[in-house]
C-alpha cells in the first residue's frame, strides 16, 4: 500500500533525529559517562540497601563472612553521594 508522502517525511525526520542524537553521543563521550553516572546514582540507593539487608540476614543466619558487606555497602553509598554533591 502506498503511504501518504507526509507520513514518509515525518518518519524520515524522526530517523534523522535519532541518528543525530547517536552521533552527538559518539562525538562527545563525556555525555556517555554522564549518563552512566546518573544511572549509578539512580540505582545506588536500592542496590546498597538490598546488599546491606541481605548481608545482615545472612549474618544473622550464621554466615560470619557477610558481616563486612553491610558497612561496606553503606560506606559505598555515602561515597557515591559525596562524589555526586561535588559534581
Helical element count? 3
Spatial separation of the terminal alpha carbons: 53 Å
Mean pLDDT: 87
Helix content: over 70%
Q: What's the order of the H and E elements?
A: HHH
Largest sheet: none
- Based on secondary structure, the structural category is mainly alpha
Descriptive overview:
The chain has helices at residues 5-27, 29-60, 69-86. The protein is mainly α. Helix 2 runs antiparallel to helix 3. The longest helix is centred in the middle third of the chain and has 32 residues, at 29-60.
List the helices and strands and how they pair.
Blueprint: H1 5-27, H2 29-60, H3 69-86
Helix pairs in contact: 2-3
Quick recap:
The protein has 87 residues and is mainly α. 84% of the residues lie in helices and 0% in strands. The chain contains 3 helices and no strands.
